[in-house]
Amino acid sequence: MLETFQLLALYVLSVATFCLIAGRFPLLAPEAQHRVSSLDGLRGILATAVMVHHFAITFVWHNTGTWQGTESRVINNMGAVPVSLFFMITGYLFTQKMIKGQPRWGSLLSSRLRRIFPMYTASVLLVAGISFYQTREDLSPLVENLQALGSWLIFLGGPINGFADSKLINASVHWTLMYEALFYLSLPVIFCLIRRQLPIVALIVSIGVIACLWPEYHHEFHKRFVKLFLVGMAVAFLEPRLRKSSINFSNIWCSVIAGAVLIASLKLRTYSTGQMLILGIPFGLFVLGNSLHGLLEHKGLKVLGEASFSIYLMHGIVIYTAFSLLHLYDFSAGTFAGYAWYLPLIIMAVSALSVLTYWTIERPFIISAKLRPLKPAEQI
Predict the structure, then answer these.
(1) How many Cβ atoms from other residues are within 10 Å of residue 279's Cβ?
(2) How far apart are the first and last CA of the chain?
(3) Are 276 and 84 in contact, with CB atoms under 8 Å apart?
(4) Is the alpha carbon torsion for 332, 336, 341, 343 positive or negative?
(5) Which three-class secondary structure state does DSSP give residue 40?
(6) What are the TM regions of this chain, as residue ranges (predicted)?
(7) 40: alpha, beta or left, given left = phi > 0 and alpha = psi -120 to 50?
(8) Is the separation of the CB atoms in 287 and 39 below 8 Å?
(9) Among residues 13, 23, 112, 10, which one has the least CA distance to residue 56?
(10) pLDDT confidence band for 29 (50 / 70 / 90)
(11) What is the rounded CA–CA span in Å between residue 283 and residue 230?
């Protein structure tokens, strides 16, 4: 318990320090500077919380040889709760689009590809480079390596150049992108159900692509995660009615409720139905404008929110490089309490690197092809 408190305290201190520093520099995109959105800052917290989760698991892995959860349910849920809320954000935002009317399917597909693949491809190349370095004395056949890279490009991953731990280099975060991809591909079907219209070409393409991917995906697919997208979708449907109510969702009592439910969710069983359902409460409040009494509107957190996808993809690579390649910590003689003091270094390094990759890799593709820049809340 004491070690959990230590890790949480270091996490809060590190994020607060980075936010105070980042808030002093012009790191926000122009369209984000004057917009009020709780989802922007929320995404920054979620991405950095996942970092803490994998930081702790790395200690377990180096001591037991097995990539598994810690003995702390709170630390384990610092991975599960953010992933749950990320899925809800996806379900909410794109259901909202479907409710408003038929999207331009080609533009929607293009925006998703440009949003995800440039940064994801860069992260996969880093994973491949480290895998080749770790197995530099034994080169696998070219065909096998191309197949392995192909598996990574459809978000499944696997050994590259025969390196069994390739998935652990990025903390295996790519598994969530498989669910995101399936949800995006299902949007024409969702639109058909919501609007009772038949976008024939979009339906044929989406169903065809899902059919091609399903033989590879069905072994990894767990239907329980669908519930999280459904919660986000439910919030999108309920939002108009709730906004017409007389409740001030930004008041202090709603902030207390949102914070209390988030804290309570950290003590529940990971990805349990109960946890998924109660997380819909704070998520709904954030959508309706609650910002935890202004916390989620902090400029520094919004910077982290913009860079959240880079943080999500890069943190595992930085942690692996620090402790498996550079061996910054002696796990054979050290304790978790001693290891925890490296967390601020990791958070600061990953956050700074991710802001850089957001501006140099992600954003150029987001605003490319003369399409309008996506709002940060849409940058999932």
Answers:
(1) 23
(2) 33
(3) yes
(4) positive
(5) helix
(6) 6-29, 41-62, 74-95, 116-134, 146-164, 176-194, 200-217, 249-268, 274-296, 308-329, 341-361
(7) alpha
(8) yes
(9) 10
(10) confident
(11) 13
pLDDT in tens, 181-231: 999 999 999 999 998 888 899 999 999 999 999 999 999 999 999 999 999
Which token pair is 83?
């992933």
How many whole angstroms from its chain centre is CA 261? 20
List of residues 6+ apart from 141 with CB closer than 8 A: none
Q: Positive or negative CA dihedral for 60, 64, 69, 74?
A: negative
- Residue 356 is given by DSSP the state H
Residue with tokens 């992108």: 177
Q: Which residue has the tokens 């953010």?
A: 82
CA angle 308, 312, 315 (to 5 degrees): 120
Joined tokens for residue 306: 């913009």
Two tokens, residue 36: 């009020």
- In angstroms, the Cα distances linking 220 to 93, 209, 214, 233 are 25, 17, 10, 23
Q: How many residues does the chain have?
A: 380
For every residue of 115-180, DSSP letters joined together read HHHHHHHHHHHHHHHHHHHHTTTSPPPHHHHHHHHHHHHTT----BTTBTTHHHHTTTTTHHHHHH
Residues facing 163 on adjacent strands: 160
Among residues 37, 41, 7, 31, the alpha carbon closest in space to that of 307 is found at 41
CA–CA dist 380, 366 (Å, integer): 12
Q: Which amino acid does the sequence have at 64?
A: T
Q: What is the pTM of this model?
A: 0.94
